[in-house]
Amino acid sequence: MGTFxxxxxxxxxxxxxxxxxxxxxxxxxxxxxNTALGPALGGTRMWNYKTEDEALTDVLRLSRxxxxxxxxxxxxxxxxxxxxxxxxxxxxxxxxxxAFGQFVNSLNGRYITAEDVGxxxxxxxxxxxxxxxxxxxxxxxxxxxxxxxxxxxxxxxGMKAAAKEKFxxxxxxxxxxxxQGLGNVGSNLVNYLVTEGxxxxxxxxxxxxxxxxxxxxxLQALSTDEILFADVDILSPCAMGAVVxxxxxxxxxxxxxCGGANNQLAESRHGDQLKELxxxxxxxxxxNAGGLMNVFVELEGYSPDRAFEKTxxxxxxxxxxxxxxxxxxxxxxxxADRMAEERIKKxxxxxxxxxxxxxxxxxxxxxxxxx
Length: 371
Ligand code: NAD
What we know:
Elements: H1 3-9, E1 15-21, E2 26-34, E3 40-41, E4 44-47, H2 52-72, E5 78-85, H3 94-106, E6 111-112, H4 121-128, H5 148-167, E7 176-180, H6 184-196, E8 199-203, H7 207-217, E9 220-221, E10 234-237, E11 256-257, H8 268-277, E12 280-281, H9 284-287, H10 290-300, H11 304-311, H12 313-328, H13 332-348, H14 362-369
Parallel strand pairs: 3-5, 3-6, 4-5, 7-8, 7-10, 8-9, 10-11, 11-12
Antiparallel strand pairs: 1-2, 2-5
Bound molecules: nicotinamide-adenine-dinucleotide (NAD).
């Protein structure tokens, strides 16, 4: 199959850019999936892909996912992603990221990059030397820094919306919540849940983290085998993906699943199955959009207060997903996609394709988005 056929088989992408610089060993692909709502935003992943097709498949899939995430979050952003082919432990150099930054810059704001798996804030600094079209840069450079507290606050908002839907009240006081994973997102979420008065159970494969969090808040720690199947009201996966799978699904006792982890359903059919089992699933990419909201605010000129305020929208977004699921009698995982598609059609239809701009000031972005 030729490259164009391969690309069209993986979705309706607007543009796919191959970036090559022999001197620094750069081989990268940028995929712009959709800019109907605004400039395409998505991180740069560096991975030791075995083949170029594998890298292309990944960038096409991930950029499409970003279109849905941004649209469902109510942001004026499109979906894009980049992959650099190489070993993040061995192949990084200043030259590599600066050369990549020049390619990003050549797109004139049609694509905005950020950190992802295999890249760090330090790499973003090198891209930033060549292009202003990078977000998630350190606070010292006027950026927004670590997005996790915002992601976690969004998860809390999603959880409250899900509690309202399932239990009739969005108060989490006394609710039994199991948090799987106590990393950046999970530990911040626990802090919020403590303030809410929830009864919290925690687990992590890293026993130091378990000890630190459970001792600080006097919480009950469970083993990593127990946490998914604990007798709780809400299960919050905040570690890795595919936790809802053929093996786990029938053993889950929680009535609600709402967490920060990406790709919680091993396959889409597990979303249908959760519906049949009467377990309310708050779709991951709607719930964990707080980090994306935070970088969006960075593009406007960063204010932590505004970013925090924005993450409150996750409550309404998740509620809307439940409304669509009830309206169309479908699982919430499908309702989330439908919500995103409806917004792209309605709002995106008002605009032409995003043309890119050389100035990233708030007024400029707003201007572009209001065209
Ligand atoms: P992290 O690496 O800081 O934390 C993950 C934690 O999960 C670690 O403490 C790890 O030890 C633990 N863990 C791994 N396997 C486990 C298991 N089987 N059982 C229990 N614990 C386990 O990552 P993070 O930034 O907190 O992100 C967590 C999840 O949220 C990821 O899926 C990530 O893609 C997603 N996410 C994060 C953000 C963000 O702002 N950081 C935004 C959107 C989505």
